[in-house]
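Review session, final week

We close the course with one last complete record, chosen because it touches almost every idea we covered. It is Oxidoreductase, a protein from Actinocatenispora rupis with 274 residues. Go through it on your own first, then we will talk.
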Amino acid sequence: MHDWNLTQTFDSTSGEVRWDSLGPDDGDPVVLLHGTPFSSYVWRNVAAALATRHRVYVWDMPGYGTSAMYDGQDVSLAAQGRIFTDLLRHWRLDTPAVVAHDFGGAVALRAHLLHGARYRRLALVDPVAVAPWGSPFFRLVAANAAVFEQLPPHLHAALVREYISTASSPGLHPTTLDTLAAPWLTPTGQAAFYHQIAQADQRYTDEIQPHYPDIDIPVLLCWGTDDTWIPVARAHTLHSLIPTATLTFLPQAAHLPQEDNPALLTTHLLDWTR
């Protein structure tokens, strides 16, 4: 993945998870969670900056990036929340700082609210967290995953690349777009792409949304002002539900501020972790 290589493995209930850590061994731990249809690759620049003072943990969720993909795999938010809780135990991290993007936001929230995962603080970047969520395209695919799986490979590749492109406001660098699309362009990846959308059910956030007022750790909400996947109206809703939340907006950034405005996002995260 163009100099982004996860060298460690963890055997989860949904298959092998690839992960890695960087930064000083004695640095305060920070864990980064990616969203869908992405991988830990989107955190590469932010992770490098945070690693100047923190021990940074990155991982590809099962069904994503370089982690296991297979038929019948459970890659739902419910499964990912349990797996993240298990990973924290595997890493022996008691109360790390956690930074979660998109789908990863729901994973981190479920682990914390349902499975007892403890965080020192939590940053949510354009998260999947409040209803309603899912673009019209996302809902169309979810309802017709078996049909989309049968697309000819060249049409599937064009669809995936165009879909990922819409997550960026200024546009993704061609190498970045190639890298983010690559896991989905193999025969296994094509099926996995539609399976993970089919399993993305809003009930998994409906289950935890009533508990957001109970969150008592510091929460930072970072939102791209140009996000068309999860509009800024959701940012205000989520901010109103979490009493400890601080909301900051990232101009000139859409749903992937790690790519669109990484310097400003990193500045906010470094200040927040300090």
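Two points worth writing down before the exam:
The chain is about 40% helix and 20% strand.
The longest strand covers residues 15-22.
Good luck, everyone.
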